[in-house]
Specification:
439 residues; alpha/beta
């Protein structure tokens, strides 16, 4: 294992003859000096090295070992490079291993380990290859500042990566630029693979959400052969690429105004071999000079994509219409609103949204009879109310944009993830068609 700067991990060990190993171990354990995270190693000359905590073993302990614990024993110090982890360490979770290694390192520097420091360690993170992205709510105690930058090498070593970054709050600047600080490493460029699609981007400049994987998989399975799509919030290509690579879209107009995301999107289109079927529209999509082209429009912005609804109506084909995929955060109120009969535990606040669960708001009993529909029991009433509200708002916008009557119909409601307590990120598939003229 290597630390963040590419340096091998070195652990101090006390060396003695095999027959004295158990006495040494008992003493070191009693004094809380034994490093239980690494294995005892046999040296080339037949002696045994017992890893110890800290960067050195004080002389008083060396004298105790030589004179009282095992008189006549050879007692020297050495360094073990890249020592093998002990069985105990191998059985630890990454969070437990991080706690053990950081606490040992902190105490070796004369800092008292406390419950406050332990509670300030991260419990979860995002892994992007050899870079780990920590959440904003960890390492906030003042004591950590005095332990930088070596602290980040210890954290990276414990978690098996070479680079570390820490996420801050998303900047409220319209482009939703993440405030990410690189703690260890030369740059934030990473590569992530989802469903056979490669995404390359700089994590300090572009957003990436692991929670959207179920929607990306769903988008990849939609029947889009021969269709033209408009992706109004393309980012680095989260949905643009599944539409092109797997769903068979003929062409995608990708809109994005974050310049860093546009650079990543252009590169991702190239490395996935679909650049010839996509046009990037850089800038504010509310000023998009595009109309009457789309069979589908993707509005993948949360907490709400409502500002993009007028332009979504504008780009839909006038002759046939199409489908809008509208993302939204919807608040629910457990206990205050009665759910439809048949709702199970799945309908509660944090149910895990398994990918295989298909949730249609309307299940058509006859393919061409939209009047016969049944409300699915798995849909929260708040989702249903928001979908009906969006449906009404969109049909009004369509008539304003095109100057003719349209009709809209809710096809599908898809949960993506639990965004916050009582807040669900969902996607509404809304079918929009022009009304035929009556002769």
């Amino acid at each position: 294992m290597e630390r963040g700067g590419g340096k091998p991990v070195a652990v101090v060990a006390v060396v003695t003859e095999p027959r004295f190993t158990q006495r040494y171990r008992d003493y070191l354990e009693k004094e809380k000096l034994l490093d239980t995270q690494h294995r005892v190693e046999k040296m080339p000359d037949g002696t045994v090295a017992l890893p110890v905590r800290g960067e050195a073993l004080p002389e008083q302990h060396l004298q105790e070992l030589r004179n009282r614990v095992a008189p006549g024993s050879t007692c020297t110090l050495t360094q073990l490079l890249d020592p093998a982890p002990s069985k105990k360490a191998q059985g630890c979770s990454p969070a437990q291993r991080l706690c053990l290694e950081v606490s040992r390192w902190v105490e070796a520097r004369g800092v008292t380990w406390s419950a406050e420091l332990e509670a300030d360690l991260p419990r979860s993170w995002q892994r992007h290859g050899n870079l780990l992205l920590l959440s904003e709510d960890c390492f906030q105690a003042k004591q950590w500042k005095n332990l930088e930058p070596e602290l980040w090498e210890i954290v990276a070593s414990a978690l098996g990566v070479q680079r570390l970054a820490k996420r801050g709050r998303v900047s409220p600047n319209g482009t939703r630029t993440p405030t990410v600080t690189l703690l260890l490493g030369d740059d934030g460029r990473v590569e992530h693979v989802d469903n056979g699609i490669r995404y390359k981007f700089d994590i300090t400049q572009c957003m990436f959400s692991f929670g959207n994987i179920t929607e990306k998989l769903r988008v990849a399975s939609l029947p889009c052969a021969g269709q033209v799509l408009v992706d109004l919030y393309a980012g680095i290509g989260y949905f643009t690429l599944p539409f092109l690579v797997h769903a068979g879209a003929a062409f995608v107009h990708a809109c994005e105004w974050n310049p860093h995301a546009v650079v990543a999107l252009r590169n991702n289109l190239e490395i996935n071999g679909v650049a010839d079927r996509c046009q990037i529209h850089f800038g504010d999509n509310r000023k998009l000079k595009l109309s009457n082209v789309a069979d589908r429009v993707n509005l993948g912005l949360i907490p709400s994509s409502e500002e993009g609804w007028p332009i979504a109506c504008q780009v839909l084909r006038k002759d046939t219409g199409g489908i809008l995929h509208i993302h939204q955060n919807v608040e629910s109120f457990p206990g205050k609103t009665r759910q439809p009969a048949g709702i199970s535990e799945m309908g509660k606040e944090h149910w895990p949204y398994p990918q295989q669960i298909i949730i249609n708001q309307w299940e058509h009993e006859a393919p061409r009879d939209p009047r016969r529909k049944v409300l699915s029991a798995a849909i929260k009433p708040e989702w249903h109310r928001w979908a009906e509200s969006a449906k009404t708002r969109i049909v009004t916008l369509l008539q304003q944009v095109h100057g003719e009557p349209w009709k809209t119909q809710v096809l599908h409601i898809q949960p993506v993830k639990s965004y916050a307590p009582h807040v669900d990120h969902i996607v509404l598939d809304l079918e929009c068609r022009p009304c035929p003229l009556v002769g």
